[in-house]
UniProtKB/TrEMBL annotation:
Pfam families noted in UniProt: MinC_C
Biological process according to GO: cell morphogenesis; division septum assembly; regulation of cell septum assembly
Organism: mine drainage metagenome
The protein's name: Septum formation inhibitor MinC C-terminal domain-containing protein
Stretch list, region Disordered: 114-133
HAMAP family registered for this protein in UniProt: MinC
Keywords on record: Cell cycle, Cell division, Septation
Keyword Cell division found: yes
Septum formation inhibitor MinC C-terminal domain: residues covered: 196-292
Length: 301
């Protein structure tokens, strides 16, 4: 008998920066979240940040954050309050952005500092340039190169004499000069294969299927138009059949998502499932509701 999830739970809202009342912005990035504290009074911003984090504890827990300040450094009490908000949710500080006066704040937080203009978005992490490699040719390779150089000189002398070393092909189309008709072939959705753990704030999206070899932590997100398969613990948000395919399924070795979606059906984690013995399970839609069955009994559904 399939075990249903509890009622739907709404996802945390994300600020778009259009409201004048917003003094702190939380933006999702590929490496975590960006916290902008340069929009107004820092005391009000910290109060608003605490409200946003408290409204979605599981979503933001265990993620990495980049902090963006303005030109004025926070006071000692404000800095202590900020550290408490982040450490209480196990949010690590990736780096600190702001004016020159913020360098001391970054040092106090124990995070790298990058000077940035007020209001500018956090830059993407820099990639180290690829080192050039010096390759030495072996004796056999040197011999082949010498043969090639000699052949190239021979071809050049033949061309000067008006000779051709390669027979030219007749490239006329068999049906005349009329261009052939083209047939549109629909592309087959592919599968995104990811190896490694997804941490909070990270997201994978795919037109097709998603396969993850590793755990999906709370706050991480998987969105696929097809199936989702996790060889590990699925504890984040999963949305299969995102383009309306109600036949899509979600499978995991341990299925404990904070929120689960299949097509338009939505379910959240049920307290009755907590503490349940881990086993491979499949989530699918039956009679418009999401149910979970052991993979060993999946064929009967």
């Amino acid at each position: 008998m399939g075990k249903g999830f509890a009622g739907a739970r709404r996802e945390p809202a994300v600020d778009d920066g259009t409201s004048e009342a917003v003094s702190v912005l939380l933006r999702g990035r590929s490496w975590g979240i960006e916290v902008a504290l340069d929009g107004g009074d820092l005391g009000d911003s910290l109060a608003e940040l605490e409200s946003k984090l408290s409204a979605a504890e599981a979503f933001y827990r265990d993620c990495e954050a980049t902090l963006r300040f303005g030109e004025m450094a926070p006071s000692a009490s404000e800095l202590t309050r900020l550290q408490g908000l982040l450490s209480g949710r196990n949010i690590s500080i990736r780096r600190v952005l702001g004016g020159a006066a913020i360098a001391a704040t970054a040092e106090a937080l124990g995070a790298p500092f990058e000077e940035s203009a007020v209001g500018s978005p956090a830059p993407s992490p820099r990639r180290e340039p690829r080192r050039s490699r010096v390759v030495e040719l072996s004796e056999s390779a040197r011999s082949l190169k010498a043969d090639f150089d000699g052949a190239r000189a021979d071809i050049a002398s033949r061309r000067r004499a008006g000779e051709t070393s390669v027979r030219r092909l007749d490239l006329k189309r068999p049906g005349g000069d009329e261009a052939p008709s083209l047939r549109l072939v629909e592309a087959v959705p592919g599968t995104l294969y990811h190896v490694g753990t997804l941490r909070g704030g990270q997201s994978l999206q795919q037109i097709g299927n998603i396969v993850v070899v590793g755990d999906v932590n709370p706050g991480a997100e998987l969105i696929a138009s097809g199936d989702i398969l996790v060889f590990g613990r699925l504890a984040g948000v999963a949305h299969a059949g995102a383009q309306g395919d109600s036949e899509a399924r979600v499978r995991a070795l341990e299925l404990v998502p904070t929120q689960l979606r299949i097509a338009t059906a939505i379910a959240a984690e049920s307290s009755a499932r907590r503490g349940k013995k881990a086993e491979p399970e499949t989530a699918c839609v039956r009679d418009g509701k999401i149910v979970v069955v052991p993979c060993s009994k999946e064929e009967s559904w």
